[in-house]
């Protein structure tokens, strides 16, 4: 368990200690851990005697769900009836409203900033090589080979930076259960490769424009200012 607990340990919930008798799987929550406690044991601490959040109704095969919903609403006061699919959809929509949209916006902003940094780094790297490019042109290098060399260098530096960041991400992923066990970081192939492709394309775009300008330089610039 990421909480460093085992069967038989006691945990404090509200104002009482409860003994752990088992662990569940498939109950992941992006915001809070999930505990299963007998209602009779917990209702005193929560002052919830006689109240219910949810009641599960199991039906026989072939039951008319809509008729059953109408009958429950007619006979039970202050109750809302949802099918299995509706319940899941509502829960998913609530999760999106509580954090998913915010996380998506933050991811888009961070991704945009990362793209700008990569593009600017590639752009400025080529501009800093102005004199070196002029020297290479002066000794007879062909424009196609020079352009290819600039782009390959840009991709190589971007890939090196990306894999360094990936190593740090993997290290954080291993430390996270100890530093913040309530947060789960899952590294998937999509998480690894999709940003890498975008980073390389941005690096190429950032290096291409200044590279083409540099290829039009007069080789005599190599001899200016020593």
Describe this structure in words.
It is a single chain. The chain is mainly alpha-helical and 226 residues long. 61% of the residues lie in helices and 4% in strands. It is built from six helices and two strands, in the order ββαααααα. The chain has helices at residues 39-46, 65-75, 84-128, 130-138, 143-179, 189-215, and strands spanning 10-13, 16-19. The protein has a two-stranded antiparallel sheet with strand order 1-2. A hairpin with a 2-residue loop joins strand 1 and strand 2 (16-19). Helix 3 runs parallel beside helix 6 (189-215) and helix 5 runs antiparallel to helix 6 (189-215). It is elongated and about 90 Å long. The mean pLDDT is 79.
Going across the biggest sheet, name each strand in turn: 1-2
Number of helices: 6
The general outline is: elongated
Task: Please state the oligomeric state of the protein chains shown.
Answer: single chain
Number of strands: 2
Q: What keyword list fits this structure?
A:
mainly alpha; 2 strands
Give the arrangement of secondary structure elements:
Elements: E1 10-13, E2 16-19, H1 39-46, H2 65-75, H3 84-128, H4 130-138, H5 143-179, H6 189-215
Task: Give the gist of this structure.
The chain is mainly alpha-helical and 226 residues long. The protein contains six helices and two strands, in the order ββαααααα.
